[in-house]
Amino acid sequence: MLGDAVYKYFTEHMHTVRATDIKLTSDWVNCIDVRDHFLVRHDVLGFSPDVIMNLAAMTDLEECEKRRGAAISTNTGGSANCAALAMELDIPYVYISTAGIFDGKQEYYDDYDKPNPICIYAKSKYWGEIIATTVPKHIVLRCGWQMGSGPKDKKFIQKIWQQIKAGATELNVVTDKQGTPTYVKDFTHQIDKMLQTKSYGVFNAVGKGEASRYDVAVEFVRLLGLNVKVNVVPSSFWAKEYSAPRPTSEKLITSKLDVAGLNVMRTWQESLAEYVNEYHEYFSQ
């Protein structure tokens, strides 16, 4: 999902990109398992990059709880493999972290608040973040609720769309989970901004504004111009499907980006409108 946006953006901006994944999802993807140190090292040294971006992750919270070893070896071990190579080559290492590393007990979290992850996914991502910071030229960006990439979207918008596509005239969506929706195209632009300015460190990097899952669903339905009712339900309504612990609030404040004048993010409403417009044909199926 994010890799699709990153590949398109950086190739369009005249960079040579070697994209890898554990699955051959596109003809421009090479098959590499980020958990395999020797394969990763061979591939990276053969390409001789100017920067390593680690977008690889197990992101399904329930799957991470079931397969804890796989989650840790991917999200933490994968970061260790990439960090070691970035350090060896003395190049920047971009690591994508998550708002989920916070426990949700506060309403808002800035860049300086102490993480306290409450599920295996979040813990493994936070450990990967800690490892990333050992690289002198590290760029750690904590993303919010991702959206974008149409059919490659694995997140909330896609789940809502699949229900609508299947004929649902009503959606049951929670208001007791709050976050900061983030468009993958804007997030990719933010990565480029950090690299261009050599702005190393750990940063919250999310779309402007805040929302509940309900808010996003209502806006998505409105943009599609559909007569679909959105009902408010508590998280307990989805307890069977989404059993992993989730923070009540994942709302991030982009203090460091704002102070440094580096923030390129737009409002989530503006970004969602562009997303729907760009993938109009897909969302019209």
Question: What is the fourth-level CATH superfamily?
Answer: NAD(P)-binding Rossmann-like Domain
Which sequence of SSEs, written as H and E, runs from N to C? HEEHEHHEEHEEHEEEHEEHEEHH
CATH architecture: 3-Layer(aba) Sandwich
Number of domains: 1
Individual helix count: 10
Span from first to last CA? 20 Å
Broad structural category: alpha/beta
* Contiguous runs where pLDDT drops below 50 for at least 5 residues: none
What form results from the Cα inertia axes? globular
Amount of helix: 40-55%
CATH topology call = Rossmann fold
Mean residue pLDDT: 97
Main beta sheet: strand number and arrangement?
Answer: 4 strands, parallel
Broad CATH class: Alpha Beta
Highlighted features:
single chain; 285 residues; alpha/beta; Rossmann fold; four-stranded parallel sheet; four-stranded mixed sheet; 10 helices; 14 strands; 40% helix; globular
Give an overview of the whole structure.
- The protein has 285 residues and is of the alpha/beta class.
- It has one domain: NAD(P)-binding Rossmann-like Domain (Rossmann fold).
- Helix content is 40%, strand content 18%.
- It contains 10 helices and 14 strands.
- The strands form 5 sheets. It has a 4-stranded parallel beta sheet, sandwiched between helices.
- Helix 1 crosses helix 7, helix 4 packs parallel to helix 5 and helix 8 packs across helix 10.
- The longest helix has 22 residues.
- It is globular, with a radius of gyration of 18 Å.
- The two termini are 20 Å apart.
